[in-house]
Please model this.
Amino acid sequence: MTDNQILILASNSPRRKQLLSLGGWKFEISPADVDETPLPGEKPDLYVLRVAEDKARKVKQALPNELIILAADTTVAYQGELLGKPVDEEDARQVLRNLRNKSHQVYTGISIYDPINDRFLNDLATTDVPMRDYSDEEIEIYILTGDPFDKAGSYAIQHPEFHPVDHLAGCYANVVGLPLCHLLRTLNQIGVQSQTDLPMACQKDLSFDCTVTEKVLRGVL
Model:
């Protein structure tokens, strides 16, 4: 990757833009509008991988072929059921009650278009998320902030007041929306290096002491 190479992020998510900026790369935004309806019986891991590649392919159709495109899709699953964004307050309330004091999974699929070899490289991050035993009152206060309504699973792990998770053993950035070590190992396959110490920058920005960085970068997680 040359110093003036620009990545194209196929997302308008503030969280993904924030996380991607930690790598020191130059990037531009080109959101992808694709049908994100799950297929009948589609498993969460296959769903996010399919939608992420659909986004990358959609952006590729509109841009010059020499550009590196990065797309991602994140979903929350509980007992194998996909949890999208809540449709209203009652939906958010019910989801948060169902997740309370239990573990669920967050899946993020990454798709990168490699212009040199005209191919798409895909990767998957999965994180087990144990929710704390928050109260009904805390749920109501959180709903009043409006934060749950653009979040799959009706919550943001990084919300400073609600903080729905006390302890997490996996990739925190994945739950926020862009697993940076998975992204880095995939970009490395096409010769794109981080311009910073990305794992350290991620942990500092998210105030999280990650224990899985080395396993992810070695490809064993």
Q: What stands out?
A: The CA atoms of residues 9 and 29 lie 5 Å apart. Strands lie at 6-9, 26-29, 68-78, 81-83, 103-114, 119-130. The chain has a mean pLDDT of 95.
